[in-house]
Each structure stands twice: as C-alpha cells, then as structure tokens.
Design goal:
386 residues; 8 strands; 55% helix; elongated
C-alpha cells in the first residue's frame, strides 16, 4: 500500500493512531479479521459438536481488533450487530439440527454484553487520556508563555532602570539635606528593581540548555572566597564551619548567585551580632556535596516552610527588612539546573539551616536517581576569622 493510500485508509477509519503501520493498516487488519471470522462461522456449521471453540474465537478476535483502535460509537454498534446476528444464526442452525441444546444461544447476548462493557471502559480510558494530554499541553503552553513573559519583561525593564539609576546617582552627588536623603531612597528602590529584574531573567532561563557553563568547583575554596566577600558587609558573627574537601561540577557564576541569595537571606533575617555559619559536607554514600548556611535568625514558621521557595514569597517576619521574594526561588532554580536540590530546616525564634545539595564531581556525569535525604546535622567546629 502506498503512503497516499494509507493516508486515505486512515482518514476513512477514525481512531487509528498515526503510528500504526503494516501489518496494522486498517484494510489489511479488517480483511484478515473478516476472513478469520468467516472461517470460524463455517467451523461452527461443519463441526457442530465443537462449535464453542470457533464461537469464542470470533468474539475474542473482535475484541482484539477493537483494541488496536477505538472505533466511534456508530461503527462499533454496526460491527457488534453483525457479529451477534451471524453467531446467533450459526448456533441456531446447530440447534435446529439438534446438534446443540437451545441453551447455547444464551451465550450470544452474554458475549455481546461483555464486549460492550469492554467498549465502555475503553472509551472512558480514551477520554481520560485525551483530557490528560489536553491539560498537559495547556500547562506546557502556560509555562512557556510565563517564561517568555519573564524574559521579555526583564529585558524591557533593564534599560530604563539602568538609565534612571544613572541619573539618580548623578543627582545624589549634587543634592544635600532632605533632598539627598530622598534621592538615596530612590536609588535604593531602583537598585532593588534592577536586582529583581536580573533574578527574574535567571529564573526564566533556568530550563534553557545553555543556562549553565559547568566547571570543577572546590567547595572549600569557594566558600572561603564568599566568606571574605560577605564578612565586611554586615555586622554579624561570621564563622566558617567544617569545610569538607568536596568538589562539584557547576557554573561558578550561577552557584555564586545562589550562595549570595542564601547569605543575603541570612543577613536580612538576623540582627547585628547574630551567628551566620558557612560549611560544606560530602556524603560518599549518596554522591552529593552540600553547602550549608546556618543562622541564628528569627526562623521560619512551620506553615511557611512548604512555600518558602515560591516566587515572591517574602515570609511574615516582622521588624526585619524584606526582600524581593525571588532570592530563594532563584536558589531553587539554580540548584535544579545543576540536578540538585535546596532544603531548609528551621525553628521559629532559633534560626534556620539551608542546605544546597549538588551532585559531587565524581558523579556529575551521571543523572542522579533522586536527591537523598540530608544527613543528620553535625555541629561543625567553628573557626572564627579575625
């Protein structure tokens, strides 16, 4: 059969899957079933004492045929009617010849009822699969639309914010008194907007194939550099905990953004003099390395823990400066981009512990089966830096 002939045959018989190929083409399959059924009808008439076997062959074959493609209701009823009439007639002939008892005729409506029950379940399953596919396609479309919107909005906002920020900085040099204080408020809000736009752009691009440019990263050196960068920025009790000799294959720039977001979150929700500790561990059993950020901040209520990594989720910790609500969402996007995960353990009023888990360098080429449960927390030995 030529491709155009196959296409015409497919169009004539609704419900055929496009992937069906020979020997499952409609014409060949249907003709084979018709021939098989006629042979079994002849066997019912010729071998009257053995009519049960060919009779059930006919019903089994029509059930299998229906399984290859689900017909519309009208063709199904026609096929069912033809099978019922022909099998009833064939057995009726045997009954008239006194080769079989009349009770054998009861099997025809019973088999028809079973076939129709199968048809009903198959159509329900098809409707459910169709609805599931529709919802999946719609969700994929919405996610793609959302990602494009975030990218477009971030790009469009970047230029005017940069221009406004530049002019505000020029004004801040010339103004004095209350006007200078006001322009510094403007500068702070513009800087916050620029940070929000950059984070939105990174989150939107997190699923792109070229999002990451991985390289080997030694976590002890990486955390030491971050410690030196952040220690002068806030009056906190900065400490380095245990730094395991762990290495990951990661995009250093993206990983630095994630770590900065975690440290920014720790600074925002701790008061002057509170502890902020950085440490690294390496679990050889799970082949995951872990960056740990601990603080003695306000903690997170239990009812907020499940949503702490959602976008624009800023929490309800009163009395402390708020952020953009995108920092932790950015951390999760970067972690998952590296085939890792981020987790949090927190006690309200006592502090929080964030764990950024990444595949260790020895297993970076493999796709991990899943992020293991984090090991029990071990209090690290603190090394205070002068």
């Amino acid at each position: 059969m030529q491709p155009d002939q196959q296409a015409r045959a497919t169009a004539l018989i609704p419900g055929l899957r496009p992937s069906d190929q020979w020997p499952f083409w409609p014409v060949w399959l249907d003709l084979a079933w018709v021939g098989f059924s006629l042979l079994n009808l002849a066997a019912i008439l010729i071998f009257a004492r053995w009519e049960t076997v060919p009779f059930h062959f006919i019903w089994i074959s029509v059930t299998l045929l229906y399984g290859f493609r689900i017909w519309p209701t009208k063709p199904t009823l026609w096929v069912l009617a033809v099978v019922v009439v022909t099998t009833f007639a064939a057995i009726g002939v045997d009954v008239l010849r006194h080769a079989e008892p009349a009770d054998e005729l009861n099997e025809v409506p019973l088999m028809a009822a079973m076939f129709w029950a199968m048809v009903w379940h198959a159509r329900r399953r098809l409707a459910a699969d169709t609805e599931r596919a529709r919802v999946s396609d719609e969700n994929a479309r919405l996610l793609a639309t959302q990602r494009r919107f975030l990218q477009d909005a971030s790009h469009q906002l970047r230029t005017p914010i940069t221009i406004a920020l530049g002019h505000a900085e020029l004004l801040a040099r010339e103004l004095t008194g209350q006007e200078q204080r006001d322009i510094h408020v403007v500068l702070g809000e513009l800087t916050r907007l620029r940070s929000l736009g950059e984070r939105l752009l990174i989150i939107a691009a997190a699923e792109n194939p070229d999002f990451l440019h991985p390289e080997p990263v030694a976590l002890d050196e990486f955390l030491g550099e971050a410690f030196l960068r952040w220690r002068p920025t806030a009056a906190r009790d900065w400490q380095l905990g245990q730094l395991a000799a762990a290495a990951v294959r990661a995009d250093r720039e993206r990983l630095e953004l994630a770590l900065d977001a975690l440290l920014e979150n720790a600074v925002q929700h701790t008061r002057p003099g509170a502890l902020i500790r950085l440490s690294a561990s390496n679990d050889m059993r799970t082949a995951f390395a872990c960056i740990v950020i601990e603080d003695e901040g306000t903690g997170i209520p239990q009812d907020e823990l499940a949503h702490i990594f959602d976008r624009f989720r800023t929490g309800s910790r009163a009395g402390l400066p708020g952020g953009t609500g995108l920092g932790l969402a950015l951390v999760r996007s970067i972690a998952r981009g590296h085939r890792g995960e981020v987790r949090v353990h927190s006690t309200l009023g006592a502090g929080s512990r964030f764990e950024l888990m990444l595949p260790a360098l020895t297993a970076a080429a493999e796709v991990p089966a899943g992020v293991p449960a984090p090991a029990q927390a071990i209090e690290p030995v603190a090394h205070r830096m002068p």
